[in-house]
Amino acid sequence: MLFVHGFPDFWFGWRKQLPVFAKTHWVVAIDMRGYNDSSKPAWQSSYTIETLAKDIHDFVHALGRDSCILVGHDWGGFVSWQTATAYPELVDKLIILNAPHPGAFSRKLRSSIRQFIKSWYIFVFQIPYLPEMTIMNDDLEFLRELFEETVCEEELEGYKYAWSRKGELSIYYKQHTLSIIA
After folding, report:
1. For residues 128 and 97, which has the higher predicted lDDT (pLDDT)?
2. CATH number of residue 174's parent domain
3. pTM here?
4. Residue 29's beta-bridge partner residues?
């Protein structure tokens, strides 16, 4: 099983699922390109959804596997949808959490002003520097608000560490291009 995180997570977001599924499966949780300890290419073109899907493909093969059960959450769900579409032979089973099918999402976004308004944050994250300035405000307090009661203080500090390193947040808006709604 290969676990692909969403925003603002990194591999650590799967820490509770890994030991449970490790009882019956071979499990791996990755840091997607640009997150936490992964590589951070400077060019926005390095973060297309097609490139991220190719990363998943290459990673599975680098592990010496031909296929996997692919589990994606949030933005990782969109990347997992793309991976399954581009490389169907790679995916034995696809499990998506908190991410609609990209085609259905794109149609709904174009046809529903209500959905468009609910998706405001996608467009805000396209504006250079604004997301980084907002999120970095007040010692990454947005993480506390986002995770509310789901992480303890020590885990919250781990998230703050991962996101406070230079360039982490600029990677996020490089990744979240409008290609998912095109």
Report:
1. 97
2. 3.40.50.1820
3. 0.82
4. 3
